[in-house]
Amino acid sequence: MRLFRIFTLLVSVAGLAACAHPPAQKDYADFHAAAPRSILVVPVVNKSTEVTAPDNFLVSLSAPLAERGYSVFPVNMVKHTMEDGGLSDADLVAQADPVRVAGLFGADAVLYASIEHWESRYILISATTVVDVHYTLKSGKTGATLWDETVHTEYSPSSQNAGNPIATLLVAAVTAVIEKASPSYIPLANQANQANQVAFYTKGRGVPAGPYDPAYGKDF
Length: 220
Description:
Structural class: alpha/beta
Distance between the termini: 50 Å
CATH architecture of the domain at 23-118 and 130-152 and 188-201: 3-Layer(aba) Sandwich
Shape: globular
CATH class of the domain at 23-118 and 130-152 and 188-201: Alpha Beta
Oligomer: single chain
CATH superfamily of the domain at 23-118 and 130-152 and 188-201: ABC-type transport auxiliary lipoprotein component
Radius of gyration: 21 Å
């Protein structure tokens, strides 16, 4: 009888999970009305304690947007130009008028990214980097928000399975120690790319295909 009750409970839980509704699709009316062709990516706001996170994340933003079909201004050129114009602080840029910022380059839209959380956690033999990023795309003509999304990702350095449990544990422990002493920024860059892929490409929630993508006007 007890086993039957447990089985019934598990079936009920599975049924509830199956009935769970996926996140609702975003309303893209304002986005499609604005029809941006060029996107200006501004310096990343950093709310984490990882001082190198903004620059590492900034350089990862152009490629996926360009692949999505938009003309994207070179991020390093944009950053240096803003610094020369007195906008060296990412927080100041985020608070500035989007229309004014876009006007400096003639951009149709401005992409803001804010690193809400970037933390490496070390527990026994494992090392995991947790990243939360909030993205906002604003019109360069009206300043209105055209799209926004928050993404959570986690990265753990992988080690080769030696086929021996003890050897595997030793390799994992060494990997975690190395990662703690000197984090590998190539995997972290890959982690940033993963967050961007989720943010920009998720069906019904990502950025619609741009005018230089064959799927323009056909996806969502």
